[in-house]
Amino acid sequence: MSDAIEPIPSFVVSDRNLALELVRVTEAAALASAHWTGRGKKNDADGAAVEAMRTAFDTVAIDGTVVIGEGEMDEAPMLYIGEKVGSGGPAMDIAVDPLEGTNLCAKDMPNAITVVALAEKGNFLHAPDVYMDKIVVGPGLPEGVVDLDSSIENNLRNLAKAKGKAVRDLVLCTLDRERHEELIAKAWEAGARVRLLTDGDVAGAIAACLDTSQVDIYAGSGGAPEGVLAAAAIRCVNGQMQSRLLFEDDSQRERAQKMNPGKNPDRKLGLHDLAAGSVLFSATGVTSGTLLKGIHQYPNHAVTHSLVMRSKSGTVRFIEGYHNFKTKTWTPQ
């Protein structure tokens, strides 16, 4: 019997290292888009983030396929659904939002972030660009304490009981949209406080899982691709999330069916339906908000603030990066 140690196959890459590589990707996108903060040009900000993120991915040791991206190939020149990224390595699915909150960046408003999530191939829901109904609470609560199909009043009462709080002490976070008027009114009527977001429901959903945010629950409808990104982060901290795709017509439903063959497109989705297996998540702040501090720019350097999470270990890291433009191989345009 030999005591020789089997060599590690060359394709095995430590996900610890990958997590830190992802930070460089979101940092690059944030630094590029920060040039456009407050300039009123959301498309230019988004384009700069996309290009920087795509370039940064070329250095990451994966064989990645974008499954949540900027759109179909004919809609997006880069980071389109199906695009290959990475320098070679294990097969991974990639979910990206190069600049979540393009309006927030353009108007220098809180909560603009750059986001990337990574999972082993086949473990992200292939979500079409439709709306998704969502409800999110944080870790350490009884399973099923809230339910997507229950009223917001019942969910608030059950959550308050589980947290040992009064409903009046709960904070519900949702997008400030006309479609949420009834949700907001009923939450107020139940006695809860409501934090309204103009944009950026990835950050809002994650906030419900972090004690530092003082948000207890996220609810309402937003983009389905953003729902998958949020689910990746929520997996890393053992929060709870339920969702359901919302369709405006049969063509949207048929597209969802084609993207996920054999699955009922109208089914209620649990957290593992959205993001399964080992998941990595990274986000970098562009403008300061509930989740992250924005970029601080100086004549020759910039400071970034990022959140990195890994589902396998449950590790949550906040990373402050100092970027010296005299020594970096690239600088913001």
UniProtKB/TrEMBL annotation:
Entry keyword annotation includes Hydrolase: yes
GO molecular function, one term: fructose 1,6-bisphosphate 1-phosphatase activity
Transmembrane segments: none
Annotated keywords: Carbohydrate metabolism, Hydrolase, Manganese, Metal-binding
SUPFAM superfamilies for the chain: Carbohydrate phosphatase
Cross-referenced Pfam families: FBPase_glpX (PF03320)
Catalyzed chemical reaction(s): beta-D-fructose 1,6-bisphosphate + H2O = beta-D-fructose 6-phosphate + phosphate
InterPro entries (UniProt xref): FBPase_class-2/SBPase
Family assignment from sequence similarity: Belongs to the FBPase class 2 family.
Name of the molecule in the record: Fructose-1,6-bisphosphatase
The organism of origin for this protein: Acetobacter cerevisiae
